[in-house]
Write a structure and sequence with these properties.
The chain has a six-stranded mixed β-sheet, covered by helices on one side. Strands 1-4-3 form a three-stranded antiparallel β-sheet, with no helix packed on it. The protein contains six helices and nine strands; from the N terminus they run E-H-E-H-H-E-E-E-E-H-H-E-E-E-H. The radius of gyration is 17 Å and the shape is globular. The model has no long low-confidence stretch (mean pLDDT about 95). It has about 220 residues and is an alpha+beta fold.
């Protein structure tokens, strides 16, 4: 993690402007174009969910603004993002599952299936959760595969002032390959243009994964 120098950042004035806002976060909901990823995942017996989460992880590494955070009231950029995703247990309650990054899709799915299995058996507020919940490297994820939503809002803690993004995926439209996607970011760190560029990067990663699976 390194601090962003105001003299090197065109958004320094914007960052200062939004610091006094009671609610400085904004949300954009769109339909993410995943192409033939779902079909190819079925053909290769790969988890579609973990495949698009893999694409999200790659996009976060490639697009710096989604890694901007606020630490001690200063803008910083973290070297990597540690994604934490909500998954359901059999009793329909949820747990927070930290996802393991990997450069290989098969390793990513294998390792995170193991993570999911392990963390679903832990308490909601686990030791790991308490150790990492205020880590600026976090990025929070939810998955709502039952809903084709067109807007979203989040529960938010009054202490949530790190600028950590929140992303939500919805139910896939299998005919179009489109996936409802919500992203919430701090307006002092990103504007609508940056969100659009980030979404484009996710779609690029989906396309690249499709090309990889096609061989």
């Amino acid at each position: 993690m390194k601090q962003i120098k105001p003299s090197d950042w065109p958004r320094a004035e914007h960052f200062d402007f939004y610091q006094s806002f009671e609610q400085p976060y904004f949300n954009i909901t769109t339909r993410l174009k995943t192409g033939k990823l779902h079909t190819l995942c079925k053909q290769h017996q790969l988890s579609f969910t973990f495949s698009y989460l893999y694409c999200l992880s790659k996009a976060c590494q490639n697009y710096a603004p989604i890694r901007y955070r606020i630490v001690d009231k200063h803008p910083c950029v973290v070297d990597q993002v540690d994604m934490s995703c909500v998954f359901l247990r059999e009793d329909k309650s949820f747990r927070f599952v930290p996802l393991v990054a990997s450069k290989d899709i098969h390793d990513y799915i294998k390792e995170n299936n193991e993570q999911k299995k392990a963390f679903l058996e832990r308490p909601l507020v686990s030791e790991h959760f308490l150790e990492t919940c205020e880590d600026p490297q976090q990025l929070y994820l939810s998955i709502l595969p039952w809903l084709d939503f067109s807007s979203f809002s989040h529960a938010r803690s009054a202490k949530d002032n790190l600028g950590i993004p929140k992303c939500v995926f919805g139910r896939l439209d299998k005919q179009t390959g489109e996936l409802p996607f919500s992203v919430e970011v701090h307006h002092g760190l990103m504007d609508g243009l940056h969100v659009a560029e980030f979404i484009q990067e996710i779609e690029t990663q989906c396309k690249l994964l499709c090309e990889q699976l096609l061989g």
